[in-house]
Every structure is written in structure tokens, then in C-alpha cells.
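Comment on the following before class.
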Amino acid sequence: MQSDIDKAAFKEGMRVGMPTWFGVGAWGLVVGVAMIKAGLTVPQALGMTLLVFAGSAQLTSLPLIAANAPLWVVFVTALVVNLRFVIFSAILAPHFAYLPWRTRGWLGYLSGDISVGLFMQRYPSAIDEQGKLAFLKALVFPNWTSWQLGSIIGILLGSQIPASWGLGFAGTLAILCIMLPLIINRAAFVGVLVASVVGVMAVNVPYKLGLLLAVILGMATAMIWDEKISSRKIADKEAS
């Protein structure tokens, strides 16, 4: 019985995640090309995409690396850009707290923005329910594979692709098509709006640190907004 439930959940996860595979691969291709254009060697770029597996952190780090920024600036910037994964971990933890830490570790490594967003749409509550792990695996495995295939192709072809192709714009469109459907509540929308405005206003900040500021303020805004909405709902329930 359990096996049948897991199989059905895995198939459902594959079906839900399938529309994002091409966009993820395209985004990976852009990042792969960007790594080569930034001056990384093929082995360095391959190591980065396989170990880091975070497009936003990679793209944020590349201009800093190319500009010979201090190492601590590169690491701190990448760390702050990826702070959202702390939130993802907090979201997923109640669902999979029963798993061994090693299993949770590699699931955390494979889980990304899209996987977590789609998982929470399917399982918004942390109640014990069969099929959750199979559904998440069906999201993270193809997502990781699509990213790595696209990124590796971009790395290998990076030196052959002219900058005039406008891959940066294509990558932006790809990630927007993937992420916009995941903005499913007001808190997320407000956070994205604040981050976008700050990112544009701080575009000329040295070392691209304006992006860092945009991420921090966007995340903080979304968390504060979500907390206020939750408090309001609790107050309304108590009043009724």
C-alpha cells in the first residue's frame, strides 16, 4: 500500500515539475556561459556548478571574482544571497524531521527555489501524510539534472558563444517564467517588489553589493509582512 502511494506521489511530482525543466536548463546554460566568460577555466567552472548548485550565488560571485574583490566579500555576498535556503530548510524541516540527518543533508543540497515552492503548493501543512518524500524526490532529482546538463553545456560551449546572442536577457526571461508562478501570496509579492526596486536603485553600488542589499531588504519585508498577516488572522479568529 505504501509503495503504491509513493509511486503515485512520485508520478505526480514528475508531472508538476516537468514544465519547469526547460527553463531550469536554460538558466543553467546562461550561468555556465557566464562562468567561462568571467575567466574561470573549464575545471573551475565544472567544480563550481557541481559543488555550489546555486545560480544566483554563482552569478553574484562572478563579477566580484573578475574584479579581484577580497575573498571575504565574495563569500559573504554569496552567503547572504543564499540565506533564503535557511528559510527553505525551516519550511521543509517539519515535514521530514524523522529522516536521518544524512538524508536531510542531501535533500537540502538538491532542493531549490522551484522545488520548495511546488512542494509547498502540494503540501502546505506539516501534518503526517504519506507520499511527501517521493513527491519531493520527483521534484529535486529532475531539477538538479536539468540544471547540471544546461550548465555543463554552457561551460563547454562558453568560449564558442558570442556575447551578441544576448544570453543574459534570455536567462532573465527563463528565470522569470519559472519564478513568477511561485509568487503565490502577498508576502512573497511584496518581498519581490521591494527587492526589485532596491536592486534597480542600487545598481551602481560597488562590487554589485546593491544586489546583496536588495536580497536582504526583500527577504526582511516578506518575513515582516507574513508575520503581520499571520498575527492578523490569529486576532480575527480570537475575536470571532
